[in-house]
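Record pair follows.
FIRST:
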Amino acid sequence: MENTLLIGLSRQVVLRRELDVVANNVANLNTNGFKGENSLFQEFLMPVARADMFPAPDRVLSYVQDRATWHDLSQGPMQRTGNPLDLAVDGNAFFVVQTPRGERYTRNGALQTNSAGELVTSEGYQVLGDGGPIVLQPQDRDITISADGSISVREGANAAIDAQRGKIRLAAFAQPERLQKDGSSTFLAPANVQAQAPAQDVRIVQGAIEKSNVRGVIEMARMIEINRAYASVSSMIERQGDLRRTAIERLAEVPA
């Protein structure tokens, strides 16, 4: 295959990858706590193949390489709901949840209680406190969650004194960009990435949830741009193929 076709193919491969990333962002526009993803590409200079008809600086063939996908961990918009079990983290920290695969970290604070009274996420993962899973009693009312995550309730209709139900555990990371996606809104910390206590200005907001930080208009514009670029490369490859076919047909002609 000619170099032009290989270069065009490398561009199409990374455009397809970028389109998958953008499509996933668009699909999670309404996923609470979702963090958008972006693609990272770089130029790859082929060390062997060269195009000798060009000037010396341009003879090494330049391909496109899919380098990585990175997470945009910027805070999404906060939506007030009034639900006492809806929580949002204001600052650089994550809720800690227990999953069948171990501890994970999330910004999705749309919480609820399961049949055992445990505070869980919408996926059913237990929300962890300083002493383990947080459990609410059936008679608990007037649930109040302070900015530091402390949970207090009134026990029964006639109780006048607050009872404590634990303190929600928050985790922060010195290098949050090293976290790995493990679900739509949960992250996994690799073995060499350790959680630490959040900064003093981090707080929990009760009665609110953090929405996805994906900006729909920008993502749709990116999708249109990617489709146009893919079509342009396809057209270039098709023209190159036509030129090659025409050249072969003419070279194959036998003079009369």
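SECOND:
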Amino acid sequence: MKKLFLFCVLCVALILTGCGENSSKLNPNNPVTLNIWHVYGSQTKPPLNDAIQRFNETEGKQRGVIVKVVSVSNSSAIDKALLASAAKEPGSVPMPDLFTAYPRIMTKLDCKLLLPWEKYLSKEDLAIYRSDFLKEGQYKDHLYMLPIAKSTELLFVNQTFMDRFLKANNINQANLEDYDTLFALCQRYYQWSGGKQMFQINEIYHYFLTKLAALGEDLVQNGKPNFTSEKFWRIYRPMAAAAIAGGLCTENGYASDRWKTGEVISNVGSTAGILYLRNYVTHADNSREAITTSFLPSPIFKEAVNKRFLLQRGTGLFALQNKDDRKNQAAAVFAKWIGQKEHNLRFVTQAGYLPVNKEAMQALMARQ
């Protein structure tokens, strides 16, 4: 009788243990939902939303993970909302399970709130990324930010309008490749067009930072920007001349706004800006004209012809560390999926970014 009793107790214990294990694992019959805030396409159709939908219909469905987009905004707004949520400020909303942000958020949030990715992703899982991209997400011996996409800078050209100007003045488009000749063209365009702007640099700071680096000098020295060196004046003078004489737009805002009306027909800006460039121009009389857009390498100065310096930047993927470990596992499932070659390449090419997966980057560079 005692043996029978002990046998029954053992069976019950095994059953309860089994139930406990199952409840801590992902189950497609009892899916976990993760809310996400992200930045990819706040003013247009968000390409990350499309990727998330594909995940939910495939890997997510099979594994029991649903990712729900709650907010698509900009990085500053997300930072502000995250800090308000963490501080439980009046009117703040609950923090999302997943969000995209720049590395700076790691110095502002209590990192105890964040999921260390290395605890849920293996060394093999992380080996698919460029090491320098992973390094950006390291803070206090943990990997809190996982790379998802990187942008750089290009020269965008309204080729339809630019061709009219170049052909009318018998000018070779190669003049757009060098900043000296490009700035000179700004002045000619201003006169030819009756006072219109030809070119805009979206991020002036990036211009000085990268062009000085290409000439072998750092813009920031001893913690302060150096505005007195000969090389600084070398890249400042032609830009200032174009701004003063006309043709170089120095007004606030991004070129994509003026692109819509043809007020600006070329600009250097983030590759992600492609999401906001229309394939038509709206004239003052409200008529539309279709245009062709060209994407060219960012211009250089001839002294730095073999030293093309460009910025790379992009928000990374963060997850909250949840008491329900299924949510932590679910976050890792999505993170692993979006980082895989096929999915990463498809997402970034739709969004105007560069992939973070090493094989995807090689495929893109080889134009496969």
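COMMENT: The first strand starts at residue 32 and ends at 38.
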